[in-house]
Write the structure tokens for this entry.
Amino acid sequence: MRLTILAASLAAALAGFAPDTAHAQQASEQEIAELKAQVAALMGRIEELEARDDAQSAVNIDTADALKNIQTVQPKVETKGGLKVTSGDGQFSMAVGGRIHFDGYAFNDDIASPTSTTEFRRGRLTLSGTALGWEYKMEQDFAAGTNLDGLRDLYIAKAFGAGKLTIGQFKPYRSMEELTSSNEILMMERPYASATGLFNGRQFQQGVGYLYAGPNWTAGASVFNMRNAATSRNEGMGFSGRATWAPLMATEQVLHLGGWYSYEDTATGTPNLSAVANYAGRRGPSLTIANTPGASNDQVTSYGLELAGLYGPAFFQSEYVRAQFGQLAGPDQDVETFYVQGSVMLNGGRKSYKPANGVFASPKVADTGLWELTARYDQIENKDVFGLEASSWLLGVNYYINPNLRLMFNYTQGDNELTGDETGQYALRTQFSF
């Protein structure tokens, strides 16, 4: 109830007060006049207070409107886990990330005599975000070269229907290990069933992809030109498709099944399509397993099967791949490769599964850090040319210091069936990502 109502009621009561004859002699006209003056003063004070209250209410409303306008205009800055800026209206966002992989190698020479050295395996800066409903990602790897040589992911993407459409340069949907981030791969290098072998030099391709994911399955397809940003213009085309299913998917138990197919067709200007095995680790000796000349107008087709799982602290992953490399003269050459790898977490923690991509990720790291023992057997062979075969045994230890920092040690024992070389490699990586 406003104060004016109370004051008006009091004034009306006093104005209507008429002393009876018995009291008339006790109340003088002067007293009545003083009382009326006090009521008038009270009325003035009440009106003054109401004016102030109305003014303050207006200020509060204006302040609230101003704060609301600021919230819709000023950008939002987040620093948890990195740097992210979002516009006030939510229509645009930008996040900055990156990774540094610094490696050191020492070789146990045999027939080959590679150089023991250090290098930045990766030095990437990533810019990603959204713009008017579209996702974008631009990533430059300074360790791979400047300008076009170092461009990695460079695309825009948007949800269409039940899936997501991607346009630009990205990895075709093939090979579980290839689609696993380099920040989360088990060993320092990927096995032969990936671009570190079968798809040598063809990790990122330019094209269009569509990925549809359910709660425990994925289905993706991509069509691409046979080039990346650093490759000369050519008319070669390719297609790949991958599907995954996790019939068992719990926090500590996961079973993953997958399959994929890849078709690459050479044409005018297409580079040679090769499968190359660095059987004693990166910067060690290599063996070319098969090659399809770009000028042959021939094809490389391959298909792979995936099996992976998680049981508490234990993890395993395997792929089997069969490929055919077309030749200028003579029949196609069949290439077969497979690997089996696994790990055990020693002091708690476990790997996580990403059902939207059908790959495994690194474990969540607590303040005390995590230790992981790793192992892999990797083999690749040209079934039509005697001696074109290589294999590797790898043993390793990963130490996750925190969610951003990991130390990796690998020992690789290589075996080149063509030359008999059995060079080994000791490798150490300091990996930082944000």
